[in-house]
Each structure stands twice: as structure tokens, then as C-alpha cells.
Amino acid sequence: METVDVVVATFGNADLWSVLAKRAIHSAECQTVKPAGVWYAHDLEGTDLSNARNQAAEESSADWLIFLDADDELDSHYVESMLAGDGDLRWPSTLGVVDGVEDDFPVLLQPKRHILVGNHMVIGTMVRRQLFTDVGGFRAGLPVLEDWDLWVRCLIAGAVACPCPDAIYRVHVRKDSRNTNEQLHSQVYADIQNRYRGMI
């Protein structure tokens, strides 16, 4: 069987994130099919999540990588479901959690008419480690949407993306999340579209 490493990475307030990350790490360790490794990395400079993720990925020798946000969780069948799927990129269903209350059912995001119109693959998308390495990993300096930027580059490199609806990624919604900054999102969204327009 192919091997999978799960990477939980953080930046900023190390004390805060080390507490939150325990839940994420626990969900990665309690899988029906155990990952080869569960890596935790914190950006020592405290400024760039991409750096922490890339550093952990460099240590991996697994066939596949799953990146798990420190405030989110994986369903217990996540790795098993991902390994049963197809494609070089395998995206999961998502289940929202707000103040400890889960949505009624998971949702599998559908592709837009073009990947540069919008992202349907969350950070928990499983990616071949060699593909991740070949495209240069996460682009440093992006304050948000760094996963979308990565998936676009993977697709430009010829990757095939396929859904894995039985893999459920629990997204814990926090009011102070960096993802709530709409102006920042708009700026980075435009940057990604302009950077890769005409390449895919």
C-alpha cells in the first residue's frame, strides 16, 4: 500500500496554535489506515504558513501528502478513503463546524468552469509528494489562498484531480481566521488569476 504523511503546520502565536493543533494531530493519528507519519511544524519566524508546511514536507518520504490546518480535523476514515481514490490530486468533502456545532451533512465542492475562476479543492486535498516537490511546494509570501495557488501549479504540470467524496474534512470556522479578510482575499485572488492566466 502507498504511504501517506499528514502535515499540520502553524505560524504566529506558537502557544495558541500548539493547543489548537492537538485536536488536528489527534484526528490524523486516529485513522482506520494509519499515516506513515504525522508532522507538526511551526514557522519560527512566525510570519509564513507556507514555510512551515514546506519544511515539514521536505522531511517526508511518503508517496502522498495531506496538509491539515491546525484548527481543523480529519474524519477517522480520511486516509483510507483518499487511498481508495484516483488522481494525482484528491479533494474531499467538507463538513463545517461553528462553535462546536456541525453542519447537517458534508458537501463535496464542485469544480468551477475553470480552476482560475475559483478553488474547489481545500487544503486537505491529498497530493503526490513528488508532484508537490516538482512544482516547488507552497509559494512563500502568500497570506491566504496558498493552497489554491499550489493546486493551479499542479494542474499546469499535468496533474489529474479527482474527488474523494467519502473523505470528510472538518472545517472549524473561527471569527478571527485570516480567511475572513475579504479585502485581502480579493487582492490575492487577482494576483493568482493574473499570474497563471493563459498557462492552463
Report on this model:
The chain is α/β, with parallel strands linked by helices. The chain has one domain: Spore Coat Polysaccharide Biosynthesis Protein SpsA, Chain A (Alpha-Beta Complex). The chain is built from six helices and eight strands. 40% of the residues are buried.
Fourth-tier CATH superfamily name: Spore Coat Polysaccharide Biosynthesis Protein SpsA, Chain A
Which CATH-level-2 architecture? Alpha-Beta Complex
Separate helix tally: 6
Structural class: alpha/beta
Which bin fits the share of residues in helices?
25-40%
Shape: globular
Say how many strands there are.
8
Distance between the termini: 32 Å
Give the quaternary arrangement of the chains: single chain
What string, H for helix and E for strand, traces the elements in order?
Answer: EHEHEEHEEEHHEH
The average pLDDT is 93
For the record, what CATH class applies? Alpha Beta
- CA-atom Rg in angstroms: 16 Å
How many domains is the backbone divided into?
1
Give the DSSP E fraction (strand runs of 2 or more residues). 15-25%
Biggest β-sheet description: 8 strands, mixed
- Per CATH, what is the topology? Spore Coat Polysaccharide Biosynthesis Protein SpsA, Chain A
Low-confidence stretches: none
